[in-house]
Structure formats: structure tokens, C-alpha cells
Amino acid sequence: MSKLVFAANWKMHLGPGQAREFMAEFLARSGPRRDRELWFFPSAIAVETVASSTAHRSDILIGAQNVYWEPKGAFTGELSVAMAKEAGATGALVGHSERRHVFGESIEETALKLRALVEAEMTPVLCVGEKIEEREAGATIPVVERQLEALEGLDVATIERIPIAYEPVWAIGTGKTATPRDAAEVHNAIRSWLVAKGVAPDSVRILYGGSVKTDNVSSLVSDPEIDGVLVGGASLDPVSWAEIVNADAD
After folding, report:
1. CATH assignment at residue 152
2. What pTM did the predictor assign?
3. Which of 48, 109, 130, 167 is catalytic?
4. Catalytic: which of 96, 98, 105, 130?
5. Is the residue at 250 inside a domain?
6. Residue (of 209, 241, 208, 214) closest to 226 by Cα position
7. Would residue 172 count as lying in a domain?
8. Which of 41, 125, 134, 236 is most buried as measured by Cβ atoms within 10 A of its Cβ?
């Protein structure tokens, strides 16, 4: 892919006021570049703030961290796709490891969210990845392939528009990072799974997420199998996030 993707997942941090301050600092430090695309996934109550702050930047896209598949109803605490879209989001994370392992999201629920976003002409970013015990058991590829089954039933053209983020659970917020070779091995397996479904191997952008920092981002994005990064903790500081998105491949 010609453009590297740098995606910031703020998780349960930065309300509207802090988000506004963050964006002012970040935008002053990082101008648009033709070779990369930036995504911000703020908290639900800060989506509109971040979207309005970046309306002048066509290289920046805003997404929700989670959505519910029903259009409306008695679902206290949930965020509909239409609500996220009205606030300025053009996409959403789906199947993030914390949704799976903290909140119990099933692969079937991930599939429902994917389809709701596709029907609304929004971009789902599908997250996949294994836990440490699964990796140590040699089950990384089977686990990831099972999670990819959320894409079953979608046509090839639709799948080609859905970025996939490989985020090994054991590397999220732990300081441990998969080596570029580790990540590339799983990315290659994801592409092989997609090819078996009729998808062109280079048509889907595959990101890496898991303790990405200023000192390892260049080596990660230098690997041809890695089309970008999904960043958590290091994206919460505007200075470090600007350094990350401005980093060039080794």
C-alpha cells in the first residue's frame, strides 16, 4: 500500500477538554504528509471534539472505539453506528482485544458490528490477536484465523476496504513488543487467509499494535508486511504521538 497508517487508540482517556488541548499541540507539531494516513479513536464523548478540530485535515480520519449493531433501542450505555457517524466518526474499531477479553465480545458479535458499519458506509478496523498462553501453545495462527471468520459472508470488494490490526494481547501495554519478524509472520498468515477467500494479497492494509513507541516504530513500519501501526499508550501524549507519526522507516 502506498500510504502508511498511524492510528491512535485513546481508550478510556482524554475527555473533550483534554482532547481539544491535545489536538492543538499535536497539529502544531505534525503537518499533513502525502505518504501516510492518520486515524484517531477517542472516547465516545470526545469524537465530535476531535472531528471538529481536524476538519481541515483530509489526511486525518476519526473513528469510534466501539459501536453496537442495533440502530436504536433500550441498550443503555451503547453507541449506535448512526450516533457515531453524526458525531463525526467515519469508522470504528471492532473486536479490540479489550472488548473480547474484558467485556466478553464474541466473534459473532464482532461480525454483527462489522456488518452494521459496512451498511452505514463506515470503515471497520478489525482487530485480531492471541493471548500469551495461546502463543506459547503454538496456536497464534489458528486463533487469528478464527477471529478473521467475522469477515465471512462479506463480498471481496467489501473485505478489501477493511483494515486489519494484528495486536498480540501479550504485547498490549506490557512493554513487550513483537519483533518485526514476529509481526510479519502473522501478517503474512493473514494475507494468506484473505487470498484463500479471493482477496488480492496487497489490497488489505494490515497494521501492527502492541507497545508501539518512538524507539521501535521505524523498524516496524520498515517491514513490507506492515502497513502501519495501531498505538495505545504512546498516543496519549501529543509530543510522542507527533514523533511517531513523523517517523520514517529504517
Report:
1. 3.20.20.70
2. 0.95
3. 167
4. 96
5. no
6. 208
7. yes
8. 41
